[in-house]
Design goal:
Elements: H1 4-57, H2 61-121, H3 128-173
Helix pairs in contact: 1-2, 2-3
Amino acid sequence: MVKGPEQLAELGRGGVETAMKFANLAMESAEKMMRLQLEAARTFVAEQTENAKALGEAKDPEGMMALRNRLTEQAVERAMGYSRNVYDIAAATQAEMARMMQERFAAYQKEMTDTVAQMFQNAPGGSQGALTALQSTFAATQAAIENITKAAKQAQELADTNVRAAMSAAQAAAPKKKA
């Protein structure tokens, strides 16, 4: 026999648990970003102090230009490193959220499959056609969601590859620029 209220309550509990996991993951990600920003700010203040001292100690225009070029290169490297760290945190968070959603969807699929199987077992005579149509619709929906999930994962992997390639290209090009 199908236990509607109990099954609905279980689906609700699974959704609440997933929502709590999402909230915790979002908080952890925000904490990582805040630590990264705080460390970047500390580094910036310390480096600017040293840079001001170095500029004050420069003896001639050539020395100042060489120092300026070195400082510019270091600034670009730090900015690229910071961007890479921000991207890594965001990508890791997104991957974990996708994993959690896949787990929740798999659990939901199993629950729905079990429910449909119970409906078939307990179906009154003459309802076989309706149940077959329901099962067919459920299978088609399941296949469509799996295809969408696969396409989204491929798009995310492509975007990740492109962002990493762009960062590498920018980092490789940056030190070559001399003013």
